[in-house]
Specification:
The structure is a single chain. With about 120 residues, this protein is an alpha+beta fold. The chain has one domain. The protein contains 3 helices and 4 strands. Strands 1, 2, 3 and 4 form a 4-stranded antiparallel beta sheet that branches. The longest helix is centred in the middle third of the chain and has 16 residues.
Length: about 120
């Protein structure tokens, strides 16, 4: 299972004595994978990371501070690592036996056209 937070937050700053500027910010955490061998979710760690991301936004010198969290979602997604039958392509045996470092190059259709010319 893969878990992460997504939020929609309201940030405010004082522009003049009476005017307040408001913006909506979107903050998310990096996904955490829960497996059978590590079934415990570090909820405190996710909350800490979320708070750090909000702090990073407010510390950039814009003057905006968190006023309200409008939405907070905790997303759970089934996690299926690459395995045979998916888009995973195993390294050829001859290359594994060679023991060399590999570098993969992805060619787009445009690159292939240029090479044919």
């Amino acid at each position: 299972m893969r878990v992460h937070f997504i939020s929609e937050a309201l940030f405010e700053r004082n522009v003049d004595d009476e005017d307040v500027s408001r913006i909506t910010g979107y903050v998310h955490t990096f996904p955490v994978v829960i497996t059978e061998s590590e079934p415990d979710l570090d909820l405190d760690g996710l909350i800490t990371e979320f708070n750090q991301k909000v702090d990073q936004f407010t510390c950039r010198g814009s003057g905006y501070v968190l006023a309200q969290i409008k939405k907070l979602k905790m997303v759970f997604v089934p996690f299926q690592p690459f395995a045979a039958g998916s888009s995973y392509i195993p390294t050829p045996v001859w290359l594994v036996k060679k023991g060399a470092e590999t570098q993969y190059i992805v060619l787009t259709a445009m690159d292939q056209k240029q090479q044919k010319s």
